[in-house]
């Protein structure tokens, strides 16, 4: 699940006349135009509804389909409701609290209507951008709906958290599904209870709703099994033109990877090169967006010889490629090629997210084999202990894994749109509903944003590799227990004694900070622990010039909470801290290396062809 790295809300203002008051907008209404637009809206809506019904029917009960998730949500929330009903006194007390809050809200609303200045019963949490429009507070009608929603949602969350007789796993699933339901029920998502939508509808004679229905039809047409709500203007960017433009050459490729060597920008470079292993569930250019946001360009400019693994977007022909194949043909093959290309033994490795999990597995494999070519490792939001792996664990049990494996067996891979849907469900208030409001209710095309373009550029996952990853890591947590084997070698993380830079991010919903920290304690050498502000993406892609998020450093502690309490906060990006750490471990300076003059002749210019293959 990926955070979008933005603090502002999507969809501020209407297409035309969005800043008018409701009364001013009504005065300018053209009722004939409004009526015509409503006819157009209902006509388009009928076609869209028919298309959605056909899509939902064809998806059946496959994992992560609407039908399967609604059924699972009803089952889980029903078990909590049953436990609450079985305790009449608790149920009565909970109902009494809710009705008391409603009565308080009604009383204060009446007093406010009579002109009295009253304090609200409930206010949005800091950072909740759904209710930023002034109309939510200035207009009593909308203010009432906002407060009623906040009262109800907080009451439901409190009841779910505190109902007795519910096991921890069921309670966590119930909280997750409750979050989906409550996010969907927000009055901000209703055209009749959102002041910005009402104002815009009156000002444009409902043209916004007609445009929104057209955008919905467009999204349906471009989606595969699941509806993907557009989060950005996909026509605004092109890989190799606007993004992934750091100069370099593809010097090697096999079935799984292209290896890019970037052109130097300094006369001298550190002797030991850097190889980056990004996640294969996304395109690598999250680390090479626009030049001012590119970690790749930053590393090159700091005097490192940088290589990037660009994973293939696999099809059914690669269905049987395993996690072990990704280690041998991916990371270890890249190490071998760089050794030969530069004529040296040692390399540095960086692994991001699942690329870091693969790197840790490869390091344990190398330690068992006596292979010392990897001199240092940098892990970016990478888990190796999945005990506290967060809400993604909700999707992984024996029944769901079996269904998922059966579905992947049909095609030989998992469609990238399904993983994207799961990631978005981890943060529906930020990654789903703001775009529903902006696109379909306000009728505005989403704003061009490079990070969200990357987010939409999903990749497939080969069946064998993905099934192994979900079952062996998430479900069984075998790597952290010392039970995992690759190539007949048992993996022991404590045998990894090289210097490690471990980055976790404070608001990560995919690789929670506590989970990454827990895994860092399993290594056998020195680990520099760094926590960045923000989440899984924005916390990593945080260039120094932006001065947007801070980071924390500290010595290892017995628990994550103890580490956070003692950690030192540092303003600005973690990138300079990491560069200084790596330079101290990368040997003397040597003349810069030209990627065109090595043992491997260039195949094509960066970013290469693998990254341009679409899902």
TrEMBL record:
Organism of derivation: Methyloceanibacter caenitepidi
Protein name: Polyhydroxyalkanoic acid synthase
Keywords from the named record: Acyltransferase, Cytoplasm, Transferase
Keyword Transport (UniProt): no
InterPro entries: AB_hydrolase_fold, PHA/PHB_synthase, PHA_synth_I, PhaC_N
Coiled coil: none
Localization, UniProt: Cytoplasm
Every Poly-beta-hydroxybutyrate polymerase N-terminal domain range: 128-299
Any one GO molecular-function label of the UniProt entry: acyltransferase activity
Region (Disordered): 1-24
Domain of life: Bacteria
Any Gene Ontology CC annotation: cytoplasm
Entry-linked Pfam families: PhaC_N
Annotated NCBIfam families: PHA_synth_I
Coarse class of the protein's main subcellular location: cytoplasm
Record GO biological process: poly-hydroxybutyrate biosynthetic process
């Amino acid at each position: 699940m990926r955070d979008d790295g933005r603090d502002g809300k999507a969809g501020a203002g209407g297409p035309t006349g969005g800043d008018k008051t409701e009364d001013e907008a009504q005065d300018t209404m053209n009722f004939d135009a409004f009526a015509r637009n409503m006819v157009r809206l209902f006509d388009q809506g009928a076609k869209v509804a028919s298309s959605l019904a056909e899509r939902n029917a064809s998806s059946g009960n496959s994992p992560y389909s609407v039908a399967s998730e609604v059924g699972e949500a009803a089952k889980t929330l029903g078990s909590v409701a049953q436990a609450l009903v079985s305790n009449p006194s608790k149920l009565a007390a909970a109902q009494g609290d809710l009705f008391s809050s409603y009565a308080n809200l009604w009383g204060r609303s009446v007093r406010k209507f009579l002109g009295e200045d009253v304090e609200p019963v409930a206010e949005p949490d800091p950072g909740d951008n759904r209710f930023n429009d002034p109309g939510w507070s200035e207009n009593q009608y909308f203010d009432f709906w906002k407060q009623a929603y906040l009262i109800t949602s907080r009451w439901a969350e409190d009841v779910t958290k505190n109902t007795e007789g519910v096991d921890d796993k069921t309670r966590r699933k119930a909280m997750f599904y409750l979050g989906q339901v409550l996010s969907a029920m927000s009055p901000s998502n209703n055209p009749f209870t959102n002041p910005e939508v009402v104002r815009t509808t009156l000002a444009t004679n409902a043209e916004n709703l007609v445009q929104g229905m057209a955008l919905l039809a467009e999204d349906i047409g471009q989606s595969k099994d699941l509806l993907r709500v557009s989060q950005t203007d996909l026509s605004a960017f092109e890989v190799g033109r606007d993004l992934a433009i750091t100069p370099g050459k593809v010097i090697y490729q096999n079935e799984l990877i292209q290896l890019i060597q970037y052109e130097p920008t300094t006369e001298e470079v550190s002797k030991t090169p850097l190889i980056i292993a990004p996640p294969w569930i996304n395109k690598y250019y999250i680390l090479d967006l626009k030049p001012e946001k590119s970690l790749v360009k930053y590393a090159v400019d700091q005097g490192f010889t940088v290589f990037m693994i660009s994973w293939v977007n696999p099809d059914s022909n690669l269905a049987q490629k395993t996690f072990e194949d990704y280690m041998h043909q991916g990371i270890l093959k890249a190490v071998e090629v760089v050794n030969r290309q530069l004529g040296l033994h040692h390399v540095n490795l960086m692994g991001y997210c699942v690329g870091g999990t693969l790197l840790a597995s490869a390091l344990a494999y190398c330690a068992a084999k006596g292979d010392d070519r990897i001199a240092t490792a940098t892990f970016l939001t990478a888990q190796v202990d999945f005990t506290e792996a967060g809400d993604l664990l909700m999707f992984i049990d024996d029944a769901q894994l079996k269904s998922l494996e059966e579905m992947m067996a049909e095609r030989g891979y998992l469609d990238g749109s399904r993983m994207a849907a799961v990631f978005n469900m981890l943060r529906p208030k930020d990654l789903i509903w703001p775009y529903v409001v902006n696109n379909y209710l306000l009728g505005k095309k989403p704003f061009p944003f490079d990070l969200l373009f990357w987010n939409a550029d999903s990749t497939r996952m080969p069946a064998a590799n993905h099934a192994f990853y979900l079952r062996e890591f998430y479900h069984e947590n075998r790597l952290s227990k010392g039970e995992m084997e690759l190539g007949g070698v048992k993996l022991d993380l404590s045998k990894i004694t090289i210097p490690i830079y471990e980055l976790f991010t404070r608001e990560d919903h995919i690789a929670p900070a506590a989970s990454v920290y827990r895994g860092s304690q399993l290594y056998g050498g020195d680990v520099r622990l760094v926590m960045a502000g923000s989440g899984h993406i924005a916390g990593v892609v945080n260039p120094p010039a932006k001065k947007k998020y801070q980071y924390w450093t500290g010595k290892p502690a017995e628990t994550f909470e103890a580490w956070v309490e003692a950690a030192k906060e540092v303003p600005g990006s973690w990138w300079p801290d990491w560069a200084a750490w790596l330079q101290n471990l990368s040997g003397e300076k040597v003349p810069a290396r030209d990627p065109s003059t090595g043992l491997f002749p260039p195949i094509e210019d960066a970013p290469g062809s693998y990254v341009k293959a679409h899902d």
